[in-house]
Amino acid sequence: MRVRGKGPGLIGLATAVLLAPLPATAQAGGGQARESRVVREASGLEWRGRIQEAEALLEEFLAESPTSSAGLFALERVLRTQGRVGEVLPWADRYLEGDPSSSAVRYMKLRVLVDEDSLAALGPAADAWFAAEPGTPDPYREVARLYQRALGSEAALAVLEKGQETLSQPGVLALAVGDIRAEMGDGPGAAREWARALEDPDTEVGAVLRRVGGLEGDPQQLAPPLLDALAGGPTLEHRQAAVEVAIGFGMDDDAVELGRALLEELPPGERSGFLLGVATRA
């Protein structure tokens, strides 16, 4: 039997298969495996006190894979150990060039700027985060926390109020605004913001009640916005909370009026329990 030789067409096909790029999933899997290996090796070097070797390994890897979050955070840790955490900032910037939507890396950059007292750079970095995630409240919350730590409550409040002006649902930041106003001693302002927060369907009534319990001041200034928001709320839970707030502020007439209206809404089997609860809190 004659064995036919491999023709040029078959050889070309084999060469093409060998030289073809791997599928994206295979490439991603290989990259993740290498990332894990490098980070583990760097951690081992760090544990053995070979910090500079760990740093060099991570920087070499990030030069090739600049959007490796695990590599970047490992490098931040290694540099922080040496008191040189500010040197991670160029690597963070390079990461964000490739993945501008990474909230974790943007937060890390801001945190490092605060740690390094690079306060003049905070504003541009915060604005870049807001622009990268438009319509999202989380950047405003996180930036406000860092601003409060670095620049004080008024600066944090300004960030949140900017978010309220920008977002289509400003109520999503109202709890945070109210918290800062309460810390600043502005009880009526806090009450107004917490009432505003109830416009957001994701706001838990219990979260507002816990905050209201710590307010001190004139009930006639504190209670009205909360009572209006709760009494006009969409659920029985809201209206029950209105009764609780009225009782808590010692506004007996309002509590009776709100309780009477609520009693008519409750199923007969729940009325006695509601009345007992009111009597306990009164």
In short:
With 282 residues, this protein is mainly α. Helices cover 73% and strands 0% of the residues.
Would you spell out the secondary-structure blueprint of this structure?
Elements: H1 8-19, H2 24-47, H3 51-64, H4 69-81, H5 89-98, H6 103-115, H7 122-132, H8 138-150, H9 153-166, H10 174-183, H11 187-197, H12 205-212, H13 219-231, H14 236-248, H15 252-265, H16 268-281
Helix pairs in contact: 2-3, 2-4, 3-4, 5-6, 6-7, 6-8, 8-9, 9-10, 10-11, 11-13, 12-14, 13-14, 14-15
Tally the helices: what do you get? 16
What overall form do the CA principal axes indicate?
A: elongated
Pick out the low-confidence regions: 1-29
Which structural class do you get from the secondary structure elements?
mainly alpha
Strand content: under 5%
Mean pLDDT: 86
How would you characterize the overall build of this protein?
This protein is mainly alpha-helical. 73% of the residues lie in helices and 0% in strands. The chain has 16 helices and no strands. α14 runs antiparallel to α15. The longest helix has 24 residues, at 24-47. The chain is elongated. Mean pLDDT is 86; it is low at 1-29.
What are its keywords?
single chain, 282 residues, mainly alpha
